Amino acid sequence: MGQCGITSSKTVLVFLNLIFWAAAGILCYIGAYVFITYDDYDHFFEDVYTLVPAVAIIAVGSLLFVIGLIGCCATVRESSCGLATFAAILLLVFVTECVVVVLGYIYRAKVEEQVNHSIQKVYNEYNGTNTDAPSRAIDYVQRQLHCCGIHNYSDWRNTTWFQQSKANSVPLSCCQPSVINCTGTLTRPADLYQEGCEALVVKKLKEIMMYVIWTALMFASIQMLGMLCACVVLCRRSHDPAYELLVTTNSYA
Question: Is the pTM of this model over 0.90?
Fold first, then answer.
């Protein structure tokens, strides 16, 4: 009966190691996605520590490759030292992912405050040229999120660019793609996106942070199962003389 329990735990461990390798790729992808998105929206919040959860996710993903290798070798060789190391590293990664979840919630709550604080400044720095980083950021956000201005298109009236251009129009990135020959003029507001960008930027960044949080929670649960299986194999091996004899016999065979 004990031998069946050990075999079952070992089978689960091997399966989990394969999952860890897949998880490593997923975690690295999500961390890279957060970095790329941050690069698109970084003008709208100044706290670079918002990237800490993404850095931790990539670090955990890289470590999972090593964990999968150690776990497979330890399971196949039935090494007590290897399994103990495997369980210890899993515990470390589990704690790290719990920290990622906590940080994710903290920075998710700070996103709205950060965007509200900086978005007016970014719009005031807009000059309409592709060589200017704030201008590229605003045009990108308005096209991607289908929005115009901070709260709506009328906010452009208060910007330095609008007052200097004296054209009574907003950037072409405010134009709805279905409208032909849109010039951004405020005399035809129906041609423009009606929703402001502030709320949509906050929503987008919060969604990204939730991806990080749920991913960390999901893989933390898998790692807990891995630790449990490793501990079962170690405990059964240390308390089951028949299993020790079987391992020794197989080693000499």
Answer: no
* Three-state secondary structure readout of the chain: CHHHHHHHHHHHHHHHHHHHHHHHHHHHHHHHHHHHHHHHHHHHCCCHHHHHHHHHHHHHHHHHHHHHHHHHHHHHHCCHHHHHHHHHHHHHHHHHHHHHHHHHHHHHHHHHHHHHHHHHHHHHCCCCCCCCHHHHHHHHHHHHHCCCCCCCHHHHHHCHHHHHHCCCECCHHHECCCCCCCCCECCCHHHECCCCHHHHHHHHHHHHHHHHHHHHHHHHHHHHHHHHHHHHHHHHHHHCHHHHHHHHHHHHC
Task: Tell me how far apart the alpha carbons of residues 196 and 153 are, in angstroms, rounded to a whole number.
Answer: 7
pLDDT digits (tens, 9 = 90+) for 135-154: 888 999 999 999 999 999 99
Handedness of CA 84, 90, 93, 95 (dihedral sign): negative
